[in-house]
Amino acid sequence: MARMAQIRNIVILTGAGISAESGIDTFRSAGGLWEQHNVEDVATPEGFARDPDLVLGFYDMRRAALTKVRPNRAHDALARLEAEFAGEVLIVTQNVDDLHERAGASRILHMHGQLGSALCLACEMRSPIETALAERPPCPVCQARSLRPDVVWFGEMPYQMERIYAALREADLFVSIGTSGAVYPAAGFVRDARNLGVQTLELNLERSEGSHWFHESRHGKAGELVPAWVEEVLGSST
Ligand code: BJW
């Protein structure tokens, strides 16, 4: 990246591709989650209203799978960047897994929610999930048996949008890692960043729907591209 020494504030958007090498399915790749499950059935409020058991089972299954995977070299590299970079690093993730946290990063915004959290439809409080939601555990706050996964479905407003746009306004560099650029508003961040005069870099397995918007686009596995890029940043910023 040009002018790396002048970069003080980095906003990083991550998507399912960063967790692929940990063994978590992406959504839109061949054999991905949307080939295995109908997106309208499992990732919309309407699908949940039609068949809550199906949706709760889908998220219980994905939460259980999380216990069998570990952060990979890309998560580790971003945690190292956060710890060692002289400026600010913010990770905005679309992922509902906790692999960034488990790698040691701490400045993370989960814009599409988290598998480990439940949202009570009765009192609107969030709580950590202790038992499978399909078993209809009571809300620890109000005791109603009305918990849903604390994730953002199509047609719902993603979380933390004000903080994300504020961070983009302060950024010098926006980096997108492992996301297809198919889902808004995250897919629009690169254009928002460019309109604000921010440098933009994409690290993805292949060309994404938004590749042409980036100043630079590198293609390959996140487990290789991200550690190499982090080396570059840390090497030129000291
Ligand atoms: C690797 C790799 C390796 C693989 N290394 N890379 C028309 C225009 C604009 C917007 C819309 C529109 N029509 C509808 C909308 C809105 C809609 C939307 O964007 N729809 C699109 C389908 C067009 N968006 C919404 O509804 C959002 N809300 C919203 O807009 O609110 C405003 C509003 C609300 C109400 C009224 C009015 C306005 C909400 C979107 C919620 C998305 N939710 C999900 C599920 C979350 C919970 C869960 O996990 O189950 O979020 S869907 C799914 O897609 C998930 C992901 O976070 C998201 C993005 O997927 P991601 O991460 O990009 O994964 P993939 O699989 O697509 O891509 C992986 C990439 O990695 C690929 O490129 C691979 O090549 C790459 N890769 N291996 C590096 N080893």
Summarize the structure.
This protein is α/β, with parallel strands linked by helices and 238 residues long. The chain has helices at 17-20, 33-36, 39-42, 45-50, 52-66, 73-84, 99-103, 161-170, 189-195, 222-237; strands spanning 9-14, 88-93, 108-110, 113-120, 126-128, 147-151, 173-177, 199-204, 216-219.
Features:
238 residues, alpha/beta, Rossmann fold, SIR2/SIRT2 'Small Domain', 2 domains, 6-stranded parallel beta sheet, 3-stranded antiparallel beta sheet, 10 helices, 35% helix, binds ligand BJW
Q: What would your notes on this structure say?
A:
The structure is a single chain. The longest helix has 16 residues, at 222-237. The protein has 10 helices and 9 strands. The protein has helices at residues 17-20, 33-36, 39-42, 45-50, 52-66, 73-84, 99-103, 161-170, 189-195, 222-237, and strands spanning 9-14, 88-93, 108-110, 113-120, 126-128, 147-151, 173-177, 199-204, 216-219. With 238 residues, the protein is of the alpha/beta class. The mean pLDDT is 96. The protein folds into 2 domains: 4-22 and 71-112 and 158-236, TPP-binding domain (Rossmann fold, 3-Layer(aba) Sandwich), CATH 3.40.50; 34-68 and 117-151, 2-Layer Sandwich (SIR2/SIRT2 'Small Domain'). 35% of the residues lie in helices and 19% in strands. A 6-stranded parallel β-sheet has the order 3-2-1-7-8-9, with helices on both faces. A 3-stranded antiparallel β-sheet has the order 5-4-6. The structure holds ligand BJW. Ligand BJW binds next to α1.
